[in-house]
Description:
Elements lengths: L2 E5 L5 H7 L21 E4 L5 E11 L2 E8 L11 E3 L6 E9 L5 H7 L4 E6 L4 E11 L2 E9 L2 E7 L4 E7 L10 E8 L4 E11 L2 E11 L5 E12 L5 E10 L6 H13 L10 E6 L2 E6 L3 E3 L3 E14 L1 E6 L1 H4 L4 E7 L13 E8 L5 E9 L7 E8 L3 E11 L5 E12 L5 E8 L5 E7 L4 E4 L2 E8 L4 E11 L1
Parallel strand pairs: 2-16, 14-23, 21-28
Antiparallel strand pairs: 1-11, 2-3, 3-13, 4-12, 5-13, 6-12, 7-8, 7-11, 8-9, 9-10, 14-15, 15-20, 16-18, 16-19, 17-18, 21-22, 22-25, 23-24, 26-27, 27-32, 28-31, 29-32, 30-31
Amino acid sequence: MKRVSRYVSMGLLVTLILSMTVWGAAEKPEVPQDKPVGGIELTIYNDQLALVKDQRYLQLVTGISTLTFDEVSALLDPSSVMIRTPGLTGVRVLEQNFEHDDVSEDWLFKKHLGQKIKITTLEGRIIEGYLLAGWHKGWQNLIIGSEPGGGDIQIIQSEQIKSIDFPKLPRGLVVRPRLVWELQNANPTDKRLVEVSYLTRGLSWKADYIATINGDDDRIDVMGWVTLKNNSGIDYSDVRLKLMAGDVRQEPEEAEKAVAYLRATVNDEKANEGFREQSFFEYHLYTLGRPATLKNNQLKQVELLTAADIPVQKRYIYEGALDGQKVKVMLEFENSAANHLGMPLPKGTIRVQKADHEGSLQLIGVDRIEHTPKDEKVRINLGNAFDIVGERVRTQVKEPAKGLREETYKITLRNHKNESVGITVIEMISAWHEAKIVANNHPYRRSEAGKVEFDVTVPAGGEHVIEYTVRYKL
């Protein structure tokens, strides 16, 4: 009898699991599979979800037969699997199975309960017996008997063990995940195009941006990268890669709709460039114009966009009710074709850098941008200004008449820089009640419901004071 050997010592079973051969072959001979036709199409969503569409020419046998589909993700959702035979009718799926044995230490010992094993101790002593218990739920001692049902019992301490020889593994072991169908085919036996699609976890993507601002803080260069991560358990070679940007719900019924929508898309346009964007339902789809390979456990970056010399505005924002004395520094630019952009930008992390007086680039801030449509503004929060301070004080509260309340606020902005700065002061004047500003020493504008903005210029080394009174109708 052929036997499998492995070394054991606290970390034991890894060597065995990696090196063992599956001795139990399937009872039916498996039909050889061709490579995918034209590559796999892979659509990856923002949050650990991907749609795989795999086309292969496979032998379809007349009548009822078993069809096996190897090299699938170990993390696929069996309920999302669909098989199609494009252009061919008369094929019915009678049964569908997802097969994958998760080989582990517990699994290995459970499968060999009642079977004879050979143990070699550190001293070189050979002990043979029938495995009765061991390696279960963290307990690493082995119990063996002289007979399958017991007999003379021995407990072997794990610290004594050098190696263990096991008999052949059980028949039908499936180490690599696969899909298996029982099909009924009314057509003559022949090779036919078969398309299999499924949703899987373990694949994700995100956008990362690097922005470089010039010395005058009025122009910016932006590079966008797509960061891809594959932890699905298999490699994807030369795939047609698509990325879905948008907040796609992942409830079961929504996932099924997403599969249906994606199958309806047709795009045979050839390209050898980077990502091409197109609107899709309420989302945006980015298609890479060249084949891509994603190896298992690989993190890959692919260029999304490059835009240079974009006009940018540096803004100082003060919201005293929220930030106390802190004054935020913001960069703002428009995502437009005139600014060498105009492609909907997927959400992601943006890092801003600037050259110091020696020409060395230094990081000046990190922020996250949300999905940004074309012709909308991108706003980047770089943190708080060092040399600008705000102070907000409520100086008076009174009730001039029944049902009316007046509050007076004083906002002081101090600038310790060597040049003047423009600051936008944002005040929330209404949360639940009707509100109106009845006195103010500086012009303002309403920016959105319940908010007003004061645009002020604070001289170098000086300060500026805003005072206003708001009346609430209670």
